Amino acid sequence: MEGQTGFRLSDQYLQLKSRLHRHLIGQIEERDLQIADWPRTKLRQFVDEHVRRYVVEQRLPVNTREASGLAQDVEDELIGFGPLQSLVDDESIADIVVNGPNKVFVERDGRLSAAPVRFADNAHVTRIVQRILAPIGRRIDESNPMVDARLPDGSRVNAIIPPVALDGPCVSIRKFRREPLNADDLVRYGSVSRDILDFLSEAVANRRSLIVVGGTGSGKTTFLNLLSQWIPHAERVITIEDAAELRLENEHVVRLETRPANLEGHGEVSARDLVRNALRMRPDRIVLGEVRGDEVLDMLQAMNTGHEGSMTTLHANSPKDALHRLELLAGFAGFNGDQRMLGRQIGSALDLLVQLARLPDGRRRVTEVCELRMEDDQLTTRPLFRHVLDNDSFERV
Questions:
Q1: Which residues is 159 bridged to in the sheet?
Q2: Average of per-residue pLDDT across 88-117
Q3: Per residue in 10-37, pLDDT tens?
Q4: How is domain 80-177 classified at the CATH fold level?
Q5: What is the per-residue pLDDT for 7?
Q6: Where are the domains of the chain?
Q7: Is the pLDDT higher at 97 or at 179?
Q8: What would the DSSP string read from start to end of 357-372?
Q9: Contact residues for 311 (Cβ-Cβ < 8 A; gap 6+)
Q10: Which of 54, 146, 180, 289 could form a cystine bridge with 241, CB 3.0-4.6 A?
C-alpha cells in the first residue's frame, strides 16, 4: 500500500494522469458524449475501458491495481474534485487544508496530518477550486483572488490564489457533518459531563440567555447547535449565520444567512442588518451564529427586550477575555455610554457563559460554565462548573 501511495504521488504518475485525462476529454468531445447525465456505473465502465485500452496501446508499465487507482483518479478529475474527492468522501476527516499543489493536510480528531494526495501544479489547484465554486455561482480569478462560500451540503470553503497567495493557491474546507454530534456523543468523547448538560438543558428551557466562547476550532458551533436542540418546539426561532450550519428541528425556524458585497461593492447584507430585521419577525428567540462586529449592540438589545433565551458564540480564550471583547466590539459599534453602563447592559442581557477549548492534543473540552453578575457596578463571572486538566474531569464549583 505504501508503494502504491508513493507511485500515485510521483511526478511520473501525475504526468500520466494528465495525459490520460486529456485523452478522455478528447474522446468525450469527439463523440459529443453527455457524461454529466450518465449514471455513475456507466461512467465508471467507460473510464475503466478507456484506461485499460490506453495502458495497452501505450505499453505502459502499470499493473492491474495501479490501473484501477488511475481510473478512479481520472474519474474524479472528470466529474469530481480531483485529488480532493477522496478526502471529501472520507467522513472521518473534519477539515481539508491545501497550501499549494504539494502540501495537502487533513484534520482527524483535532490533529492535522499530511494527506497522501497532491496536485500537478498551481493551475491544477485553481481549476479544482473553480469547479467547486461553479455550481454555487461563485468565481475566483486574479481580479477576485479571495472567496468564502458555502457548498450545497453545508461545507464551508475559503480559497485564496496568487498574486495574493505568494506560494500558490490555498484552500480550506470545513466539512459539514451529515449527522450532528448529540449530547451522548459529547459525553462519550469526554468533551463535557452529563451534569453540565443537564444544567444547561434546564437553563435553555428556562429561557436563560447564553454565549458560547472559545478559540478557533474549539467546537463553538457544534455546541451551539446542541444547545439549540433544547429550545421548546412551540417557540419561533430565527437563526442568523455567515454560513448556515445550525440544524434545528423546531417547527418554527427561520434561517437567515449574511451575504457579501458583489464585485461592484453593492448588495451586502450584514449580520447587523439581519438581527435588526429579525426583531420585526416576531421571534421568541434569536440564535446568532457568531458575534464579531457591530451586530453586538443589536443582539444585546434583543436579549434585553423580550427575547430572553437567545444565544450566540464569540471568539475568546477565557471568560474575562470574552467580557473585554464584548466591550471592545460595542465600542467599535458606536456605544456612547461609559463602561459601567455597558457592563450593566451586558449583564442584563446575558445569563450564562460556556467556555470551550481545544487542548494541545486535539481534545475539545468545556473548560468552564459561568454565571454573569454585577458586583459593585462591575460585571463579573462566577464559575459554576470547571474542567480539571490534571485528571480530565469536571467539577461543580
A1: 147, 171
A2: 91
A3: 888 888 888 888 888 888 888 888 887 8
A4: Beta-Lactamase (3.30.450)
A5: 67
A6: 1-79, 80-177, 183-396
A7: 97
A8: EE-TTS-EEEEEEEEE
A9: 209, 210, 211, 212, 224, 227, 228, 285, 287, 288
A10: 289
